[in-house]
Amino acid sequence: MPGNLRVPAGLDGVTITDSKIAKSGSDGSLVYRGYDIDELARNAGFEETAFLVLYEKLPTSAELGTFSTRLRSEAALDRKVFDVMRSIPSDSHPMDVLRTALSILASLDRHESTDGMEVSIAAKMPVLAANSLRLPEGLEPVRPAEHLSLPANLLAMITGREPTKLELWTFERVMILYMEHDLNASSFTVRVVASTGADPYAAVTAGLAALKGPLHGGANEVAMRMLLELKDPSRAREFVESAVKERRKVIGFGHRVYKEFDPRARMCKEYLRRLVDEYGKGENLYLLCDALEKEMWVRKRIPPNLDFYAAPIFYLLGIPIPLYTPIFASSRVFGWMAHYNEQIEEKKLIRPDAAYVGPSGLKYVPLGLR
Ligand code: COA
User: Fold this and answer.
1) Are the C-beta atoms of 292 and 240 separated by less than 8 Å?
2) Which of 96, 101, 148, 276 would disulfide-bridge 153, Cβ 3.0–4.6 Å?
3) Distance from the alpha carbon of residue 335 to the mean position of ligand 1, in angstroms
4) Of 181, 182, 262, 307, catalytic
């Protein structure tokens, strides 16, 4: 259509809507509903932050109690979901298992309100995540404990034991940092689906699909595999040099918004330091991360992102690598719901245009003559 606005590839630097959910800034800032991320990570719990992101205000203690109770009571999974997860080939990626399981849940859901569906999806996501590796492998399902919070349950279901205070504190902080990030690729995907009027299940399933990619949520898994392959901090320079020479991206570095530093990566680096000190193990891993960070800055002026420093934390907590992105999803799902709701309120189909650059005027040639 002549006169249409042409925007940069990847919608880089393009503002497409107003949002009251979160704002990341090129100055290295991140705000959820008006609260600085540092303020929240220092003071708030995961469920409290989830309430804030979803319902636009910090909860009173009564509201938080009700919300936590809802999350616990909605976490139970129908046996049919476990059966489907068991039937998936064991070499499938847990993100694919999660996506499939969510589709089954959609057909079992009897909630009448969108809010009911949203809380149900968010409450069940950690249970799906924790079972996404073990059920296809033929192991017995793990279920959440009544007395644990959402992040405590997720970690406990994955590791098979209740986390220590430090482990839970660290894991919960990382989960808070993962919860929301304005118009990241998966949240934008959720909004596109929401704009068609589809239900939250459809939108979250699409969000999961977008999150899986290594340029987005899948980066934490790839970053960890890279760290394990490198092993030795002394190899950081040679590794970065060869990546630069071959014009290869180093996963776990770079961000569309943060060009100087990712505040979440800085915070996670501190958590990692504390974990290594308390555990008395992982020093080499810390030094390797630090060395890569320095080399990437010297050679490319590209800072590490959240995924880069979340990965070694998950590793030290004993979490299997394929579950890193499902954990991300278990947190980001609250952000997705907030975006779903905002988009529904906007009542506008997202439907951009493409400039057609293909051929025209071609004449049909019958099959046998081609
Ligand atoms: N390693 C090496 N070079 C990188 C890089 C990385 N991780 N990230 C960006 N660059 C380089 C690009 O090669 C490009 O260089 P060029 O201009 O010489 O071609 C330039 O920086 C701009 O990169 P581009 O991918 O166009 O920027 P973007 O804003 O679209 O990228 C990401 C954002 C996140 C997609 C990108 O930084 C990336 O792919 N990072 C690795 C994946 C990752 O960790 N994702 C998680 C994000 S939280």
Assistant:
1) yes
2) 148
3) 23
4) 307
